[in-house]
Amino acid sequence: MPPELKQRAPAKVSFLGYGSCALAGTCWGTGFYFGKIALTELNVGHMVLYRFLFACIGLLPLLRPVHFSRKDWLLLLLTAFLGIPLQFMIQFYGLSLTTVSHAALMVGTMPVILAVGATLFTHERLNRVGWIALVGSTAGVALISLGSTRPEAAGHGASFYGDMLVILSLVIALAWVLLSRDLMHRNSPTSITVWTVLTGTAMLAAWVLLLDGPPPARGIHTQVWVACAAGGLLCTSAATFLWNWGIHHVPASRAGVFLNIEPALGSILGVELLGDKLGPDIWLGGALILAAAVVLTTTGNKHEPEMILE
């Protein structure tokens, strides 16, 4: 192969890798929007269950026989419980109590939560810039949360309790990410992802059927079915596949910046399509959160997860 073609091939792969990560971030950014549409006719449990049933359909082509050790199976089951029923039930219950824009901006704290988790549990050091970003992000959360307590904010659907539930779900996601990284050091990332979703969905089904009964299959409008299918196939299956492919072709520390598309796009969709109202303090808080996330994902820190599922 001529030298110029050899140089073009890696450049093209890198371009596709960054594009894949950007598209994954865009897919994740629509998750709360589709979730809010589905919640107009479904309760939280049934909506999340339908989302993951569609996600399983999307991931079935990647299903392969595996030979995990007994220890890895037990760890995978714990990871699946944390990552699917526990995290998503709490997160979307929080969404049901607040607005899409508020929930999306809360997700912008995830890079900061990952940085703190890496410092506490994997003995990575957070430098001065990282600590400044942490303080800025915390201030942003405080501004948005305090803004949620105002009567006019509650009138538009925002709530402090809902915002905090979304934050709690992200803390649970931190444990899920750290356990997943440990599993993926010994096994195929694709296999871990697929089996985590499948086993987690089985746990979710048992949880929902026990507490809420069978999900309705009739009387659901087309837009709700589309929202559930998009949440599973687009925001979960496709986004996960795109992200995993992308970070295998570009540095994870650079790809991490595309995670910030999710809170930005989510808040825009909430404002433009669902009529969310954001006051000056909310805009300032969101700007602080996004700025902190960008700083932490562009300054060479290595706490981005190898696999994220939204």
Walk me through this protein's architecture.
With 310 residues, this protein is mainly alpha-helical. It has one domain (30-298). The chain contains 14 helices and no strands. It has helices at 3-29, 31-38, 44-59, 70-97, 100-107, 110-121, 128-148, 151-155, 160-184, 189-212, 222-247, 252-255, 261-274, 280-298. The termini are far apart. 49% of the residues are buried.
Q: Total number of helical segments? A: 14
Distance between the termini: 41 Å
Question: Structurally, how many domains make up the residues?
Answer: 1
Helical content class: over 70%
Q: Please outline the major beta sheet.
A: none
**Can you write the helix and strand succession as a string?**
HHHHHHHHHHHHHH
Radius of gyration: 19 Å
Count of DSSP E strands? Answer: 0
Please state the structural category: mainly alpha
Strand percentage, roughly? under 5%
Q: What overall form do the CA principal axes indicate?
A: globular
What features would you highlight for this structure?
single chain; 310 residues; mainly alpha; 14 helices; 76% helix; disordered N terminus
Compile the SSE list and pairings.
Layout: H1 3-29, H2 31-38, H3 44-59, H4 70-97, H5 100-107, H6 110-121, H7 128-148, H8 151-155, H9 160-184, H10 189-212, H11 222-247, H12 252-255, H13 261-274, H14 280-298
